[in-house]
Amino acid sequence: MSSNVLIAHGDITAPTPQNTPLTQAPIAAGLSRPTVPDISEDNEPAEDETEDPAQIAGAQAAMLGLVQGRLADLVGKSSGYIESLPIDVKKSVEALKGVQVKQNELQNQYKRECLELEKKYLELQKPLYERRNVIISGAAQATAEEIEAGSRASLKDDPLYTPLPIDEAAPAAIPEFWLTALRNHVGLSEIITERDAAALKNLIDIRLSYLPSDSPKPGFKISFIFSPNDYFENDVLDKTYLYQEEVGYSGDFVYDRAIGTEIKWKEDKDLTKEFEIKKQRNKNTNRTRLVRKARPTDSFFNFFSPPVPPPEDADVDEEMDEEELEELEEKLEMDYQIGEDLKEKIIPRAIDYFTGKALEYDVMDEDEDDFDELDDEDEDGQFDDEV
Fold first, then answer.
1. How many Cα atoms within 13 Å fall on the side-chain side of residue 88?
2. In whole angstroms, how far apart are CA 175 and each of 138, 165, 200, 234, 354?
């Protein structure tokens, strides 16, 4: 499945003949076309008349904001173009919509079958995941064949690698395997605190499963398996991601919502809260007492209390201001991206995250996202040197 799965919230409609103005702009109508004067010394501005670059940039930014605002006002509004078409042409337009409905149905069927194919190959991979788990836990020894195959892979990645002796090794557990793998993920490393790490040392496996085909909505579940620990009673913490029944406009599944396990924290061990002692004074008796108060704090384990998207019938503009809506969208996007990365990257390639090999590819993806497309030449007409 693609890692760029859409999130269900407000629809944004691109300008079309139906929702853009019918009246053409002056330039398009051949009116008031700007003219370019001949370049000569006579019309070159004097040095003291040259405009301030900061003022030019400010003016351009203001103009851009104005244009974007005008376009935003036009989105979704009918220009009268479709309504003005002859009746037979309107029927042709409606017929095309009918054809599109059938295309959408086929795309939905295709995505459903892709999901079933993913389920099939997950079942084929399960014996390998189980083998991985017993090697990590030290419940079984690695075979000479497995060690040799791993050495060949290491030598392929690094020609200077020194292969290990090819013989069966005694069972040896790999300490903090999953904690290390999670910390080597760019996004998760930012939300795992030192307090979280103490609990995540007890994480012994992370497993993927898909919801049954007869479920009301398609989706998948990530299960975190823990050994007995000092922090919570749960042996398993689940995070379930649900897709909408129909694929989105782009042809991909659209996330509907996520559901997390309620963590049964042991006394004073809730990592999602910080406790502080405050002194209070009674107004009548003037006596003081100490009060223990809890407040929310950053923690990896907030992952199991996912943000809740607003109901489809809710008037988001009235119930939430713009800042609150942006914050909610960021939280939803982060939550879904982590779930998708666990499913598509960390679980299938756990050893690469443990060793740090996966970081090379994650950083490459991040670098590509950090840069915008530019013209072949910069403003000076020169190419930048590659560092």
1. 0
2. 10, 22, 11, 21, 11
What average pLDDT does the chain have?
A: 80
Tokens matching residue 171:
């069972």
Beta strand pairing call for 203-210 and 254-260: unpaired
Confidence (pLDDT) at 36: 42
pLDDT digits (tens, 9 = 90+) for 140-193: 999 999 999 999 999 999 999 998 888 777 889 999 999 999 999 999 999 999
The DSSP code for 344 is I
User: Where does residue 299 rank: exposed (0-12), middle (13-18), buried (19+ CB within 10 A)?
Assistant: buried
Residue type, 33: R
DSSP H helical ranges for the chain: 53-74, 87-137, 144-157, 177-183, 194-200, 316-319, 322-341, 350-355, 357-370
**Torsion angles phi and psi, residue 52, rounded to 5:** -70, 125
**What pTM value is reported for the model?**
0.71
Model confidence at 294: pLDDT above 70: yes
State residue 41's pLDDT score: 46
Which of 272, 269, 261, 262 lies closest to 229, judged by CA?
269
Out of 48-62, 190-204, 236-250, 265-279, which region has the weakest mean confidence (pLDDT)? 48-62
Q: What is the 3-state secondary structure (H, E, C) of 92-152?
A: HHHHHHHHHHHHHHHHHHHHHHHHHHHHHHHHHHHHHHHHHHHHHHCCCCCCHHHHHHHHH
